[in-house]
Here is the input.
Amino acid sequence: MFGWKKTPPIRTLIGEGTTIAGEIRFQDGLRIDGDVQGNVLAIGDARSLLVISEKARVNGKVRAGHVIINGTVQGPVVAEDLLELQPKARIVGDVQYEALEMHQGATIDGELHPLKADDKPALKLASNNG
Here is the structure.
């Protein structure tokens, strides 16, 4: 729909019950089920996927191409392609996005900024229909 290419594979998992202190830099895909105290940043091209699950907590800056959040992020979030906010997503910080999909129940305590301010941002309302 927005011209996105194939989703990159998730190659790294930070499991539930794991806490990492420090900056994380990754390529391709990363799934976080644990706690991260530091920035989580995709490196390389914008074709990256970051999944922050329902039980995950990130205290730091988050930046990737495609970002899916269903947990808690305390810090700024930058989605260079698509930001998907699932029903239990909680963000305390400013958000920048190319396109935004936000489900009912997700909350943002911060400002929303489209990456291309000249263009009308692509917003998609998520429905409750599976």
Observations:
- The chain has one domain: 10-117.
- The chain has a mean pLDDT of 89.
